[in-house]
Amino acid sequence: MPKSDPRVDAYIQNAQPFARPILTELRRRLHAAVPGLTETIKWKGPFFLLDGRRLFASIAGFKAHAKVLLWKADFKSAMPAAISATSLKDLPSAAVFKKLVRASAATFTTPAAKQPARAAKKPSAKRR
Known about the structure:
Blueprint lengths: L5 H9 L4 H15 L4 E5 L2 E6 L3 E8 L4 E5 L10 E5 L8 H16 L19
Antiparallel strand pairs: 1-2, 2-3, 3-4, 4-5
């Protein structure tokens, strides 16, 4: 596994006991699917960054479930894909998970569609 952030290690160790193996597995799978992700803590939770700066994924442990969010390049208008689990067997297979993660990563490398140019406004006639 790539270099881990000790704050993410601490987050996982402080999670509910059932969530620890889920969070550890999600972390491992994210790094396996997209080599070069950078770990950090943002908003008190573990995040994974592409190119060391772009939000790509986040994991979280809650009272009764753990979750991974896979962000898209345009995260302002597109909600992230979410996978919730209460045990390791609730996670999709490693192959399916890898496919989901790589599809999300592809949104960061695919150029965004260009918006059509707006027509310039004509100056309004002044009233007398």
